[in-house]
Amino acid sequence: MRSMASKNEQPFISWSRLKKSFVYASNGVVNTWKNEQNFRIHLFLTAVVIIAAQLLKISFIEQAVLAVVIGGVLALELINTAIERTVDLTVQTYDERAKTIKDTAAGAVFVFSVAAAIVGMLIFLPRILALF
Ligand SMILES: Nc1ncnc2c1ncn2[C@@H]1O[C@H](COP(=O)(O)OP(=O)(O)OP(=O)(O)O)[C@@H](O)[C@H]1O
């Protein structure tokens, strides 16, 4: 009963809990940056794309599309890392099932990265060709 009462007393939005969630999520991003080379490569490419988008005067709608695909690649990379770590927690030896899980999660990142690269080429190639 007591726990129910205290639960009911919670505000609709708790700013301190929101702040904590933000800090925890940021820690996840920073840890992945420190430990995952692929994540660092994708962030580096993100910076290149953002600079190129400004230099080549990409339209707002195209920038929005780029933001969605870049966010998708980075988010999938984070989920892939979480899956890898979960498998490592539960499987310490070589296991075909662990291999399938990790390879499939990596495949998800790969598929979306190819789609992002195609979107990038569709947006940037005409602009780059127009320079010559
Ligand atoms: N326990 C395991 N059993 C079988 N194969 C595994 C196992 N762990 C990893 N592998 C294989 O090795 C590949 C690389 O796994 P690993 O966990 O090293 O990922 P990674 O992409 O190199 O990331 P990280 O360097 O962060 O660990 C996997 O995609 C999978 O094919």
Folded structure, characterized:
- The chain is mainly alpha-helical and 132 residues long.
- The protein has one domain (26-130): Helix Hairpins, CATH 1.10.287.
- The protein is 86% helix and 0% strand.
- It is built from five helices and no strands.
- Helix 3 (37-55) packs antiparallel against helix 4 (60-90) and helix 4 (60-90) packs antiparallel against helix 5 (96-130).
- It is flat, with a radius of gyration of 20 Å.
- The model is unreliable at 1-5 (pLDDT under 50).
- Adenosine-5'-triphosphate (ATP) is lined by residues 35-36, 84, 91, 94-95, 98-99, 102-103, 106.
Q: How confident overall, as mean pLDDT?
A: 93
Order of helices and strands: HHHHH
Question: Please, how many domains?
Answer: 1
- Distinct helical segment count: 5
The dominant shape is flat
Which CATH top level class fits?
Mainly Alpha
Major sheet details: none
How many β-strands, per DSSP?
Answer: 0
Helix percentage: over 70%
Bound molecules: adenosine-5'-triphosphate
Q: What is the CATH architecture annotation?
A: Orthogonal Bundle
| Structural class by sheet pairing and helices | mainly alpha
GO molecular function: ATP binding; kinase activity; metal ion binding
Membrane topology: Multi-pass membrane protein
Pfam families: DAGK_prokar (PF01219)
Organism: Evansella caseinilytica
